[in-house]
Amino acid sequence: MNFAGIEIGGTKLQIRIEDEQGNVLHHFRAGNPASTTADALRAIIREKMTALQNTFDITATGVGFGGPVDRENGMIFQSFQVPGWTNFHFPSWFDDWCHSPVFIENDANVAALGETFRGAGRNFDKVFYVTLGSGVGSGFVTNGILYQGNPVEMEFGHLKIDASGTELEEVCSGWALNKQILKRVSLDGTGMLASLVKKDPGHESRHLAEALLKNDKIAVEIFDTAMQALSFCLSHVVHLLGPDSIVIGGGLSLMGTTITDAIRARFATLLMEIFQPGPVLQIAALGEEVVPIGAIEYAKQHASAIKFQST
Fold it and tell me: Model pTM greater than 0.85?
């Protein structure tokens, strides 16, 4: 049996084919320019998957979508980055030309499955996964089962961090950090962070780690604000769910232990004594392929359920 995993994100599209043992048979990746539409992405998916199903016998396809979905009916509610996905019924479109059943879920949820089964969370029973990328998302897996609400759940990035209604995503997503950095360096063009941004515009948050090592004032202030908000929200996760491990993924996770050390230090005052020292904090292990890998695991689970029901 072979399985397909598709990531439909705000900044990239990935298609991965594996056999039952997890050997990679094919991998496709394309970045999404700012002008990308859902129609353009669907055209690529159809072209690639049509060719792939003629090469590989695909048992089931899992899809990790960058936005809220109605998993029971296969309806995409919306994308916050790419226009044209609102109230789109993915399975009916997919079934018109693809021969394998398809199962769609939020991208952070399938990423949580990927890290639990094949990444940093493999040795833990309760894994909370958070992705710090273009947006902020999360998923929770307990004893191998993805927690699923009705209709959605674990919208971690939309937690309020103050009484005015500011959301976590507005403070520590990649796009939010880019915006904050641009604003600060436009007001104060001195320092290492400002210099790095001028040399490489468009990737502002990527320079935070290097600037932090040099104790750049603007970098320290922006990072501290983001980590305080992130740690505050994660403390609620610990108090409510009691995870064994919190796994940090997404582009900002490339900062590595700088992030986990910052969270751990803040947990010392944010967590009740009974929860101290807090769950194991880890950086995600699967990198940029976590969503298609998790989508494959999601497809495997559903394909197994269908097989069990039919016997």
Answer: yes
